[in-house]
Amino acid sequence: MKEIRAQEVETVTLHCGVTLRLHSLRQPVKPPFLLVMPFIELPPFIELLGQDALEEEGVHGCSYLLRASQAGTGVIHTGFRDLREGTIVLEKDISVESVD
């Protein structure tokens, strides 16, 4: 299984049926990032198989287990939302291509 960190990549290429562990952006738990939650928005051909919290103390973030179900191109949109207001406080787009 391939593993990547969202903060280190701009593009990702996946083969259909192969899983990928994407580590979300990370943010220290300190003002103004006390009440934030990681999020991910995926193109239709990418499946979210699971989500695990980080085991680090004092850091917001998680890891996502993803799989491409068919060929396609799109964007993975990930980041953090403020829990009180629902607004996005940190975000990143990662181009993704899935090939057979």
Question: What are the SSEs and their pairings?
Answer:
Elements: E1 2-5, E2 11-15, E3 19-23, E4 27-28, E5 36-41, E6 46-53, E7 59-60, E8 62-68, E9 72-82, E10 88-99
Parallel strand pairs: 1-3, 2-10
Antiparallel strand pairs: 3-8, 4-7, 5-9, 6-8, 9-10
Helix content: under 10%
What is the number of helical segments per DSSP (H or I, 4+ residues)?
A: 0
User: Main beta sheet, described?
Assistant: 4 strands, mixed
User: How many strands appear in the DSSP assignment?
Assistant: 10
Content of β-strand: over 45%
Amino-to-carboxy terminus distance: 16 Å
Compute the CA-based radius of gyration.
14 Å
Quaternary class: single chain
Averaged pLDDT: 94
Q: Could you give the order of strands across the largest sheet?
A: 1-3-8-6
What class do helices, strands and sheet pairing give?
Answer: mainly beta
Listing every helix as H and every strand as E from the N terminus to the C terminus, the arrangement reads EEEEEEEEEE
Unreliable stretches (pLDDT < 50, length at least 5) are none
Shape field: elongated
List keywords for this structure.
100 residues, mainly beta, 4-stranded mixed sheet, 10 strands, 0% helix, 62% strand
Structure description:
This protein is mainly β. It is built from no helices and 10 strands. It has strands at 2-5, 11-15, 19-23, 27-28, 36-41, 46-53, 59-60, 62-68, 72-82, 88-99. Strand 9 (72-82) and strand 10 form a beta hairpin.
